[in-house]
Amino acid sequence: MRMTVRRLGGWAVRITVISTAVLIIQPPNRLTAQDSQFGIRGLGTPGKWESVRARATGGAFAPFDALSPLLDASLADVRRMTAGVTGSTSWRSVSAGSTNASLRASRYPALVIAGPLSRRIVVGGGFATYLDRTFGIVTHDTINLRGVPQPITDEIRSDGAISDLRLALAARVQDRLAVGVGIHRITGSTRVVATRRFDDSTTYRNSTSRDEVAYGGNGGSASALLDLTSDVRVAGWVRSDGKLRADVRGRTVAEDDLPLGFGGGVRWRLGEQAAFAGALAWRKWAGAGPYSHDTFDWSLGAELGSPVSPLRVGVRRGQLAFGVGKTPTEFGVAVGLGKQFSGGRGRLDFGLERLQRKGDGLTERVWTFLLGLTVRP
Questions:
Q1: Per residue in 204-216, pLDDT tens?
Q2: What is the end-to-end Cα distance of the chain in Å, rounded?
């Protein structure tokens, strides 16, 4: 006799939570995914709000780059309609206990469009990746059915992401001071497929459940840029996001706190051939669900050579928002090139980034190739 084990509507979501807990306690026998494994242990993997130019400097130039969706005030430097898009492809190797895996992911993590309304006011918008939610995990366990232990295999696949949609306004209050504000809509969805397989396939039938989880939230940001001298500029920003609501079939199944964050940076220009920058950021992720941590990040970078075709280098170090036990850490180095064409109406940016992430029982090494296109019609 064959027996079918039924599942209710929210089975995919519930089994995701259960399997994640199992994964946290004991690494699975086999591991497959696209995005960072550290994102499985929480709401996802937070994105980097940086253009290719900024990311090739380790993120150090992000507070001063109008095409990085970090500071609204930096849009004040836009003199004509400008659009910039970022693309990335990552190759990562993961070590979790005795398990090793090689993973790959391609993303378009940022798009910024901005243009002046007047000589001193610029409006802009676009999107950036807020959280990556694409992964796949396989766990093995044993359950009791009618008093008889039955070995099972659970496979969970999540495909999707949560995006940050931004509308921002920047104003140059004085020649040396620019301020900006932004409103943010955090939205996205993931398709979750959960499959349970029984080793005893002659008695028990395998079952599969599919659900789509929709996410929604709101936030606001404010920032300022101040030129201390003609060569030294400082930046500061603050952002507050509300709660992230997760809905399945029109019913709210979870609400999690999103972080309050703030940061700043300094940039020093050494003539026309060199610029150096440093940046730092703190975000209060603790409270955004189990195994969440506050994060602090810093970065240093340089842009060398002619503005037409500069060389960029950078280093960054920080923490990850989700992980078991001690806060996971991240260290990275990056290098990149830029090339203007069509009399400055277009620019191509290239970057190569190497990251190493470490947490309890999990190490991740990532190579990321970055390509950016900027157009000024």
A1: 888 898 999 999 9
A2: 70
